[in-house]
Amino acid sequence: MEIAGFTVPLNGWAESLLGSPYLYAAVGCFFACILLITLWHLFRKPQTTTLFPGQSSKAKAQNTDNAADFTSPLIQKIQRLNSKNKIILLAGAGLDNLPVTIPVKIAIAMAQSNRRCLLVDMDTRRNAAAKVFELNSNTTDGIISPYPLKTVIPNLSLWPAEFFVRFSQVNIRTVIQNTKDTFEIIMINAPYLDGHPDRKLIAMSAEYGLIFCQKPGQLDRLKMLLSENGCRLIQSEPVNCPYQ
Hints:
single chain
């Protein structure tokens, strides 16, 4: 009887609760919160960047700041050149001395100064610049005759390194000859020029050069290479990149 006596008021409490508008308001708020959290996870912007893959957000932000600080004086040197059409060679002693971030940053800055800019990538081992701008094989597979590819940056086009591998008749000299009247600035990214088999042809194709190296012997070889092939130095001292 005591149990039955307890059950009656419990059932009454449950019925009153189910009939209360506050219960439905609380349930509605709960499901609304779940929906908002789900939508936030679905549509939030990913905190990634193609310039520094595989790093934490803090490291990427630090590298971005370092890149801006490091490339600013180099950009100013290029902008002070008098010639209207400039062909700039970024000459590296090795991949560790000239990461792809440097030519990409400089090329973007040139394009943002309202100049038509072409970045020619000679890094045939990695095709790194194309990966930065997400111009992968899905973009280039159907190309029969190579041409500069437009990037997402206004005024900036890219000649990917894979073109030098896929089209044997194309070399840096022919690329420069066919594009120098179209672009106001042509940047040649040659991260391992010191040991490149076509280093003389590459140096001969440029008007000005920046050297990126860490060892005096490498600097001397690159300075001589550029000098012997008519490429004038903008930066005549070793350039040590503060990040990799």
